[in-house]
Amino acid sequence: MLSRAAILAAARVLGEAAASRPARVIPLGSYARGEARPDGDVEGVLLGDAVREGKVLVGPA
């Protein structure tokens, strides 16, 4: 099972690759439920500038 620090480090790397630091990282799946297993994967959503600027996101882009 990955530590919280490892997951946040991965989110930072993904944010840098997207040229935007994530405003928020939301875990999904077993990590969000606190049921993660050593062989499980990590799912999550990185929210960017629209969240930081207080814009409302509705439907697909």
Please describe the topology of this protein.
Layout: H1 4-17, E1 24-28, H2 29-33, E2 43-47, H3 49-52
Antiparallel strand pairs: 1-2
H/E element order: HEHEH
Q: How many distinct folded domains?
A: 1
Low-confidence stretches: none
Proportion of residues in helical segments: 25-40%
Q: How many helices?
A: 3
Biggest beta sheet summary = 2 strands, antiparallel
Strand content: 15-25%
Per DSSP E runs of 2 or more residues, the count of β-strands stands at: 2
How far the N terminus sits from the C terminus, by CA atoms, comes to: 33 Å
* Strands ordered across the widest β-sheet: 1-2
Derived from helix and strand composition plus strand pairing, the structural class reads alpha+beta
Radius of gyration in whole Å, from Cα? 13 Å
Could you say which overall geometry the principal axes of the C-alpha atoms support? elongated
What is the overall pLDDT average? 75
Describe the structure in your own words.
The chain has helices at residues 4-17, 29-33, 49-52, and strands at 24-28, 43-47. The chain has one domain (4-52). It is built from three helices and two strands; from the N terminus they run H-E-H-E-H. It is of the alpha+beta class and 61 residues long. A two-stranded antiparallel sheet has the order 1-2.
